[in-house]
Recover the amino acids of this structure.
């Protein structure tokens, strides 16, 4: 008997028939002897419908009231799921954020969970009830309703699992696990049976959108194993868990890509202290997140070339700021390129394996792909390349690191 | 400067344009120097849509979860109205039942308000904010969401007005006040400028559906004047308030009718103690509300005839119970009639005027309408007649008591 949290997203609860399917799945787990807490999102499309209503009022609706509005989506789903379970003879009870004190800060629309009261849920479970919790929402200290941002129900599920010390948090989604890379561009992509929290964090932040990043951070912090699996079949999915020694034998676990960045270069900047600070402060003040930053010696003596990437949505704003600032710091020329992509290889095994970077560069070189920028972390190497080479690069790297073959660990 | 509660029903907030109209009306009041609390219902049609969703799950959904579901309707409206007000430059804040502790009992779907915390609202008002409160909902002792039943937002508005000691509770609706009778069947019907709580209670319970009965009971208990008025114009409506001496000069204030009852008669029941109890207990046990009961001497010696009315929806169930019980108590025959109507005249002035009943009976007799049953209270006389005479009777009574002419009080 295990204590299980199951999370179902908007597509899985998109209509009454699907809600009945979810209820059956919950019942299956219960009949197998498990205690079950279910976390659900709003029915697919509902949140967008509510946002459109608000947009009819004003393009810039009040953030507190926006959260009051959009949190109704999950409220509808928990009520429907709980009454479905009851109609099937399974005792169940729904809870909103305020009812189990899903405490958050007051950052409306992107709040962070700070605590959850587990007593009511644990008592219901002891009494044989299925507990149904509204994802995505919480309350701040003043009992204002808050929401956690897109994908926030994942975080709710993990936080609930941490609070009640669940054995596993199952995230049901429309894909059946985490893949070595995007199967849409690399047919050889293989489902991973296990992946570490750190690898998952890099996978997610680099564009493999299976789980909300924050939920993985939460899971790592409280050591909650996450099982990512399909809501449409019973196949085992991918377990996101603590790093295990065997994982290190695998050098690279996955290949990701991101086409949503653009590059800005400033040529021949005087190489004196404080230049970078002067350049990046106004960009940070404009709330633009800079990803990669690279500084190299310039062809002109006593000068450096600076290059960095920003999200495409912020590109024109960032470019304008740079053009205004470049005279002040004495830069000679500003170049920019929107047609770039970032490809990355990720793996905890990199820590103990040398030569991984060289292998990556060779694989790209063999395909004639020029590398514009490189950045590395402990478990990740990223290269900026021309965006038209993205798919080619992903497939080349997938082949080079033999990701289509199950690792020793996974074969067991 | 006054402290005003304004309540807007589903039609008044039926779409974004109408919500903007409501916001303008609230702003008008605020600009006139008043402090304003607004109570709103769900957008027209939304509650029914949610009920239909639940019906797709099961014909008999769990009551607790039903309240979780339907209370989202008001939540959507308060968020939209508050963000509309803010977008117009008026500081505003929305509150759900749990946030201002609209405490109720645990009778899901028909809960009664037991208390409201006024602190947050009063502080907001002091800070120049408009307070927007979700109607229809509350929380019980265990923080379960409850709802107050159809028309419950009226009661929320009056309860909020009582809690913050508002000067008046304005109920905006699609009619512009309380009429002497239904204008649809009596063109001479006249809008009343004032009516007492007790008269309004009789009017409402007898079928003039302007206000939820419970809201009037609440208003009477806490002496909250209710101003019933149109949300589509600025005309003064009807003030429902404490009885004033002048009101007694008016004998009859209104004529109402009700076609939703049916009559059951049991002939020649042995006239011995305990018979009525034996007959009505199983009906009460089946949760059927009996309205009029009349017992008369039968043509057969030592026997009585019993007649009573029940709601048409419970008619067949009640008839079955009676037919089963009638042998036991020794009744001879059961008759029934669904084609009846109840017409009533109402007025606090009846207390000090004699002969009102006789006037009523004469008016009906002049039109050749046979009276089947009569019941009287301190401020009301009701007659059961054949339903086909309803409209004729209403018009005849309206004329007989000269309700088309403004009373002395109202002329002032």
């Amino acid at each position: 008997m295990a204590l299980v949290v199951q999370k179902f997203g908007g597509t899985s609860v998109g209509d009454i028939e699907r809600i009945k399917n979810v209820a059956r799945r919950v019942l299956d787990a219960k009949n197998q002897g498990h205690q079950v807490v279910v976390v659900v999102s709003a029915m697919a499309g509902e949140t967008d419908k509510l946002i459109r209503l608000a947009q009819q009022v004003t393009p810039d609706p009040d953030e507190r009231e926006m959260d009051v509005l959009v949190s109704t989506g999950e409220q509808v789903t928990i009520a429907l799921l709980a009454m479905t379970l009851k109609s099937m003879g399974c005792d169940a009870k729904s809870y909103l954020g305020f009812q189990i004190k899903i405490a958050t800060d007051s950052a409306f629309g992107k709040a962070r969970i700070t605590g959850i009261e587990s007593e009511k849920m644990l008592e219901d479970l002891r009494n044989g009830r299925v507990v149904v919790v509204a994802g995505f929402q919480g309350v701040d200290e003043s009992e204002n309703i808050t929401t956690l941002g897109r994908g926030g129900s994942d975080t709710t599920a993990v936080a609930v699992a941490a609070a009640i010390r669940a054995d596993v948090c199952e995230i049901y989604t429309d894909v059946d696990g985490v893949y070595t890379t995007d199967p849409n561009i690399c047919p050889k992509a293989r489902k991973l049976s296990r992946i570490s929290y750190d690898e998952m964090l890099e996978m997610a932040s680099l564009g493999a959108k299976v789980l909300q990043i924050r939920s993985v951070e939460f899971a790592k912090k409280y050591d909650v194993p996450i099982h990512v699996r399909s809501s449409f079949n019973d196949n085992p999915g991918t377990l996101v868990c603590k790093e295990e020694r065997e994982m290190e034998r695998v050098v690279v676990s996955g290949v990701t890509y991101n086409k949503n960045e653009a590059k800005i270069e400033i040529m021949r900047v005087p190489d004196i202290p404080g230049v970078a600070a002067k350049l990046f402060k106004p960009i940070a003040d404009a709330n633009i997140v800079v990803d990669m930053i690279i500084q190299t010696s310039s062809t002109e003596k006593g000068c450096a070339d600076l290059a960095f990437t920003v999200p495409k949505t912020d590109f024109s704003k960032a470019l304008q700021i740079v053009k205004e600032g470049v005279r002040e710091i004495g830069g000679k020329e500003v170049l920019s390129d929107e047609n770039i992509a970032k490809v990355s290889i990720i793996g905890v095994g990199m820590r103990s394996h040398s030569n991984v970077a060289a292998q990556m560069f060779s694989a790209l070189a063999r395909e004639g792909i020029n590398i514009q920028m490189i950045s590395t972390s402990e478990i990740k190497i990223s290269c900026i390349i021309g965006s038209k080479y993205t798919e080619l690069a992903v497939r080349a790297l997938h082949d080079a690191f033999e990701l289509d073959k199950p690792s020793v660990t996974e074969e067991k």
